[in-house]
């Protein structure tokens, strides 16, 4: 026992150290100022997030920098002052001129009052407005998520646009007793004439929501604050069958452009699902007329208006099918009303060519000053790179080809000053800045490091590429290969021949890019080699790879991971007698498959919110379409349960192989998971217990699918590491 305690103390110390590396979330450039000597400079405001283990919460802090530039290059850059924690800010946005800032803030209620929301306006050195949105009672809570939420200044800087939950009429019991109101005649007594008189019988009506992480989002409305008049109006004219979000002001402030998601016949989960029917709309502020700007049979998101107000770029996918795909980049011309395709989906990745767009969103500010080029980051196999796209010609240029390999993300671009973050599996996020060169010279981009992060010692990493054998080729998509990122300890007692932890990603249509990841880095420091597998179906390899997996889950993806494991055990100095699996969601699905299909390879397994039985998941998840699509079946909202389809789902599930499982299994489940409800993990737990397989279950209240609560994440790491150490001794 003392030995285990000592080990636990060492692990907690290691986790404490590595979890302190902050993540970089947003960046905003202030207006250009001129020194008395004619030099130009501007401020850069950045927001970071960090785990505070003592408080068991994620905290946000800000830091400012100064950038001196001559329009062509950065002359000097450096920090201005130290960090300070940000409290209660849900959203914030600088005005177009940079002289004002809007902040949506949550404030705890006094005594028994509920939490309140305030909308504030700040000028250069004071708060000039503080509006109690809760007291005005025009709508429910303001949305601060990145799915619907927005906080947008009008070009005139007189109005603010945001999204909130539609106000619900008050409801009361049929048997509510009331005192007669004074000064009313007998027949009027107890019948308030106000619009918000409570409605009887509505107390327990079910309100649909938008699923995982969006369970408090049901009916969004667009709201406008008139800053001068302190008045709020809820926009009229948006069709009843649409849920609006991601809104901004049209050129000239005559109306609002927004993305509208169809919610009939019922809502499906929206988080990480860029395949939900949606379109781009314009609503006129004066007449309330609503106009369709894009095709209405696709899925669209991330609309961004060019600085000259002439063009809107946005991302587009097909409706249904895989939740994440290779997307198209579309452009709408505000004045000619013409829509063009700037970039099509890419069937196959090829080095030296554009890999395709695989991103959850375009950067909030993505346009170059010429209103012709845009910047985006995207997965390129197991790397993430930054590209500039000429919207007139569709030509693309990488800005990170000659820069260090890893994971690059664009934070913002303003007046051609470009801010990005960069990390690798052994280096936490670094803040980088550059000036975007003139068109045609973008490959000469010079990145400057503004905030360094010391590399974490003791970790080496590399990318390996694998080709499936001919018998495992997809008949329709031959010649597809895939990658894995191998991390290994470069120092310590196990460095010569470490045990191996295999981690397949979730999704299945997502990807491990070679960036900073806390769990793999920490496991590597404990002494494990970590294999992150981007099996066929992952993003970043072309649309053919994505399309190859639906209908083949449980076979193609499982074989890819097993092939990869057998190959690295043969090629690398690793301990083949000590191999374990760690996976979440679809990675948990694969881990449970692998310990059942290849029981001789694996000695231990840790799974987080795993899919174990697609047939029992379909009726409880917020994404029933996923269950059918990945099984290779068509999804229709009105389809009834079909025994043949259920058989097919069960046939492709890990539950089918549970009789062969011998490896001890640690399960971690989020009580509030709407995506893969915890009943899935419980089903597996009971099946393992009934077969005498050593198993342990951790149940995390207040956590959803990601298990990303600071306490759950920290406890999860400790239990995972101790489980692996115990069973791989």
From TrEMBL:
It catalyses: Cleavage of an N-acetyl or N-formyl amino acid from the N-terminus of a polypeptide. Residues 175-196 are annotated as: Disordered. One of its GO terms (molecular function) is serine-type endopeptidase activity. Keywords: Cytoplasm, Hydrolase. It comes from the Eukaryota. The keyword Cytoplasm applies. Residues 11-448 form the Acylamino-acid-releasing enzyme N-terminal domain. Belongs to the peptidase S9C family. This is Acylamino-acid-releasing enzyme. It comes from Pomatostomus ruficeps. The gene is Apeh.
């Amino acid at each position: 026992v003392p030995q285990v305690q000592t080990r636990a103390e060492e692990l907690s110390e290691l986790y404490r150290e590595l979890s302190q590396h902050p993540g970089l979330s947003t960046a905003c450039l202030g207006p250009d100022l001129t020194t008395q000597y004619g030099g130009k400079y501007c401020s850069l405001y950045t927001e970071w997030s960090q785990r505070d283990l003592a408080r068991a919460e994620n905290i946000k802090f800000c830091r400012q920098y100064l950038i001196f530039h001559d329009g062509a290059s950065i002359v000097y850059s450096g920090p201005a002052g130290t960090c300070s924690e940000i409290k209660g800010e849900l959203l914030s946005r600088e005005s177009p001129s940079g002289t004002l800032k809007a902040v949506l803030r949550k404030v705890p209620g006094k005594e028994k009052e509920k939490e309140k929301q305030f909308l504030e306006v700040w000028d250069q050195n004071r708060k000039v407005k503080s509006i109690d949105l809760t007291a005005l009672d025009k709508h429910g809570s303001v949305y601060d998520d990145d799915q619907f939420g927005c906080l947008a200044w009008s070009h005139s800087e007189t109005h603010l646009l945001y999204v909130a939950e539609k106000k619900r009429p008050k409801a009361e019991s049929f048997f509510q007793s009331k005192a007669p109101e004074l000064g009313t005649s007998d027949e009027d007594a107890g019948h308030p004439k106000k619009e918000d008189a409570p409605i009887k019988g509505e107390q327990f009506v079910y309100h649909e929501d938008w699923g995982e992480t969006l369970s408090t989002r049901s009916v969004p409305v667009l709201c406008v604050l008139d800053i001068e008049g302190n008045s709020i109006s809820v926009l009229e004219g948006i069709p009843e069958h649409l849920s609006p979000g991601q809104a901004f002001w049209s050129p000239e402030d005559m109306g609002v452009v927004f993305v509208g998601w169809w919610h009939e016949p019922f809502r499906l989960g929206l988080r990480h699902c860029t395949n939900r029917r949606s379109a781009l709309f314009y609503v006129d502020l004066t007449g309330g007329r609503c106009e369709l700007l894009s095709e209405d049979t696709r899925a669209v998101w991330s609309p961004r208006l060019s600085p000259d107000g002439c063009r809107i770029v946005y991302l587009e996918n097909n409706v249904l099918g895989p939740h994440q795909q290779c997307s198209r980049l579309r452009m709408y011309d505000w004045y000619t009303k013409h829509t063009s395709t700037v970039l099509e989906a890419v069937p196959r990745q090829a080095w030296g060519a554009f890999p395709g767009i695989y991103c959850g969103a375009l950067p909030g500010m993505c346009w170059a000053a010429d209103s012709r080029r845009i910047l985006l980051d995207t997965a390129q196999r197991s790397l993430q790179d930054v590209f500039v796209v000429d919207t007139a010609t569709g030509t693309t240029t990488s800005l990170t080809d000659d820069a260090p390999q890893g994971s690059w993300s664009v934070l913002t671009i303003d007046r051609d000053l470009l801010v990005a973050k960069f990390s690798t599996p052994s280096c936490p996020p670094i803040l980088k800045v550059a000036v975007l060169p003139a068109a045609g010279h973008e490959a000469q981009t010079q990145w400057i490091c503004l905030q360094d992060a010391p590399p974490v010692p003791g970790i080496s990493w590399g990318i390996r590429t694998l080709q499936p054998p001919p018998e495992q080729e997809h008949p329709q998509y031959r010649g597809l290969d895939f990658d894995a990122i191998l991390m290994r300890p470069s120092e310590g007692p196990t460095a010569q021949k470490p045990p191996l932890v295999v981690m397949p990603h979730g999704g299945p249509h997502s990807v491990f890019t070679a960036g900073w990841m806390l769990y793999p880095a920490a496991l590597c420091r404990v002494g494990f080699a970590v294999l992150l597998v981007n099996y066929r179906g992952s993003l970043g390899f072309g649309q053919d790879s994505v399309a190859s997996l639906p209908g083949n889950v449980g076979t193609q993806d499982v074989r890819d991971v097993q092939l990869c494991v057998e190959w690295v055990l043969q090629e690398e100095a690793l301990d083949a007698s000590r191999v374990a699996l760690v996976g979440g969601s679809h990675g948990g699905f694969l881990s449970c498959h692998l310990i059942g299909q290849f029981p001789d390879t694996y000695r231990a397994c840790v799974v987080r919110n795993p899919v174990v039985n697609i047939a029992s998941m379909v009726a409880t998840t917020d994404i029933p379409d996923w269950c059918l699509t990945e099984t290779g079946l068509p999804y229709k909202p009105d389809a009834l349960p079909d025994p043949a389809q259920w058989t097919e789902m069960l046939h492709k599930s890990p539950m089918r192989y549970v009789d062969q499982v011998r490896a001890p299994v640690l399960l971690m489940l989020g009580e509030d998971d709407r995506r893969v409800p915890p009943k899935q993990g419980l089903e597996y737990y009971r099946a393992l217990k009934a077969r005498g397989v050593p198993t342990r279950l951790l149940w995390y209240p207040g956590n959803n699918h990601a298990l990303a609560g600071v306490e759950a994440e920290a406890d999860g790491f400790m239990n995972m590491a101790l489980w692996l150490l115990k069973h791989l001794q």
